[in-house]
Amino acid sequence: NAGVTQTPKFQVLKTGQSMTLQCAQDMNHEYMSWYRQDPGMGLRLIHYSVGAGITDQGEVPNGYNVSRSTTEDFPLRLLSAAPSQTSVYFCASRGQGAANYGYTFGSGTRLTVV
Amino acid sequence: RKEVEQDPGPFNVPEGATVAFNCTYSNSASQSFFWYRQDCRKEPKLLMSVYSSGNEDGRFTAQLNRASQYISLLIRDSKLSDSATYLCVVNPRSGSARQLTFGSGTQLTVLP
How far apart are CA A71 and CA A66, in angstroms? Predict the structure, then answer.
């Protein structure tokens, strides 16, 4: 099925470990974003990309890196996991000309850092 | 002040009731507005875009008041399946990928 695919769905990390959350979309969307969702905080933008080779920081970028080598993939890297990064992570995408049509979200990655 | 503020809820209503959610936003230059629905432990899904003239989709009606920087969502004839968290979302600049700002959500439970 077309859409946004995130892997893994669940992950437990130890403090200081690194890992990459994967995000892929097959809708040829130019815009892709990573959000984290914490109780009572709403979704907060971590990093975003407006096309292959172009990325920029969002509201809460510290501790995370991204790259966009292809239109389809937008991985999020945690450099050195901290308990404060325990959260649910969502990847989202939309077409460039679809500002009024909202974003399509992946099913999320639930990350626990111990 | 949060950029997007919503009624905290939770709202517990009986089946068939009409319920309204409110949302205010702080950036007067905001261009695009949306309501998303999020089921428990699921991803947000677009419910409807909100247009200046107001718009309706079946039992759902969205209104935008730019002068008051206020958005509303009205659900008529509530169904059990409407139980979810409703997120107010604002895009301050048309076409901007950066500033899609989410409210923290209003939880709705429709009771049998």
Answer: 13
**Cα(B100)–Cα(B92) distance, integer angstroms:** 7
Give the residue from chain B lying closest to A99, CA to CA: B95
Distance CA A37, CA A19 (A): 18
Chain A residues within an 8 Å CB radius of B43: 90, 105-108
Residue of chain A whose alpha carbon sits nearest to that of B94? A99
The DSSP letter of residue A86 is -
Distance between CA atoms of A65 and A77, rounded to whole angstroms?
5
pLDDT digits (tens, 9 = 90+) for B7-53: 878 999 999 999 999 999 998 888 789 999 999 989 999 999 998 88
